[in-house]
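Posting this for the archive.
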Amino acid sequence: MLTLTKRPKSPYWIARGTVNGVRVERSTGETSKVEARKKVDAIVKELQTTPPPTDWRDMSFAKAMTAYIDNGRDTRFLDKLLEHFQNTKLGDIDNVAMARAANALYPGRAPATIRRHLYVPVSAIINFVKDDRLRPPKGGGARTMFVMPSLAETIIQAATTQPSPWLAALITFFFGQGTRAGETFAIDGRDDISLEGKWAILRDPKNGHERRVTLQARVIASLSLLPNLGKPGPLFRRFDGKAFTEKVGRGGQVRTAFALAVKNGGGDPAIITPHICRHSWATWFYSQTKDPLRLKDEGGWRSNEYQRYVKLGTPEIGQEALSKGWDFSTVGENRGNVVPLVAKTGT
């Protein structure tokens, strides 16, 4: 029913198998296999007598993690989390619980490490079980969607009709720079951007590696109209002037306004999300430059994910982008002549 196994780099034996038709993955908390076997019967008895949760908040972390792993998700960093949170209900994992976990599991470690090893995987597991949408099986290769420059043009124009001085500039930035939503929302209007120097600094990227991007000409023109350019605080804001507080997912709090612009611009909001702008930028960029290293550098990829867009870019797409004012021919061409990264004060 349950067997004992170990994962690399983990000293503890894990009970894995099926109980009453439900997949189980539980840490025994024992480094000795003899002692671990004694825990297996107790685990089985507990699972057989405990009624299944009716709400995700009542689900144990161990059960949520099992479902997460079974769906083919990333298993890195999970062993320590399983040992620490094992029977903790998801509803009890709040900021206080996470702070305690950080002190217990990664004392004295850098914030970037704690975020990558603790906050990112725990959030991913919780969000996985909270999201009850049907998930198709994985396989068949990743689909790479992108928007043609002509459609991007109508989406940006549609955004200008909404009551926000930031939305059209934000979408222009997405298409012109290929940045992710979270790292874009974190740009400071005073310390992280220079229209004269044609650069912006992304201090909160997904992979934790701060980088600078070269601002495209259309982006510079659009940003020059923002009322808070040169002032401290987030450069891009909600329609009411408040900062975006949600930096995860498919665009966070900008999703509704973005979807309306896409719909009014003639696109499908179910397909075209802020992240599709990144796909589009990469496709246009390579279509014009034929330079995979510059694409990887500007896009901030630490893996070979950028290669997907090399296969998509054709000269016709690059020419259409150029006709709409998207000129990437010199972007990132000579890093030595661009203003270097500077440290942000107060951090």
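The longest strand covers residues 14-19. The two ends are 52 Å apart (CA to CA).
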